[in-house]
Amino acid sequence: MELEIYQIDAFTDRVFGGNPAAVCPLEDWIDDKVMQSIAEENNLAETAFFVKKENNYEIRWFMPHDEIDLCGHATLASAYVIFNYLETDADHINFISKSGVLKARKTDDESIVLDFPSRAPKQMEIPEEIFSAFNHRPVEAAGSRDLILLFNTEEEIRTLEYDLHFLKDLPFLCIVATAKGVEYDFVSRVFDANASMPEDPVTGSAHASLIPYWQKRLNKDSFMAKQLSEREGTLKCSIDDDRVYMAGKCAVYLKGTIYVPSR
């Protein structure tokens, strides 16, 4: 079996920036174990697979070790592939996912705006494991799918050192460190103690929690956000009721064919 594959750098306007995602368009769904093996072989944070069904696209995302329920940068990358290679006349897309309907639309400046469900985190006690894992101490915690940790300054986020083995048993997919920004409304870094890549470059799904979190703290609905990983990325964000919006650009790094042996 031969499948198309694209590798797209998302939330950036240049190759080697942002967050890389693999994208595999499918005519029909293939076996879950094969998709998981492809994601493991790609060894990127996420590989997205999608199938067109009438006027919508069903989409799924696989990390190298498991499927996840929501991914921002691989959805942005998938929309980029559709807009630029598969349906060049389209200006909007509906994705059907395990997290409901996700939308993407093109803008005049070649950005793509994602429309995701808001996942407002609830304030909670800071888990004791956090104090052993990081060199700076957070001052507040809030939980949803991810654990949001508030730090005092942007400089603490930039200089955060970590030992994630302390966090492997926490019941959260990602650990998100955030603080009020100097030039941006807020900054963040995102960690996954159980992934092959411990720090994620630019994490759209984490912003589904970060945006409502900072809406309450800053009392505003629109933001410019910066993820301060080594491959930095910028997100133009907003919130309206129970939906969050993230705008970003993409750059194509690779187009090719993968060869999957018959089973």
UniProtKB/TrEMBL annotation:
Q: Which residues belong to the signal peptide in this entry?
A: none
Which UniProt keyword terms apply here? Isomerase
Q: Which family does it belong to?
A: Belongs to the PhzF family.
This protein's name? PhzF family phenazine biosynthesis protein
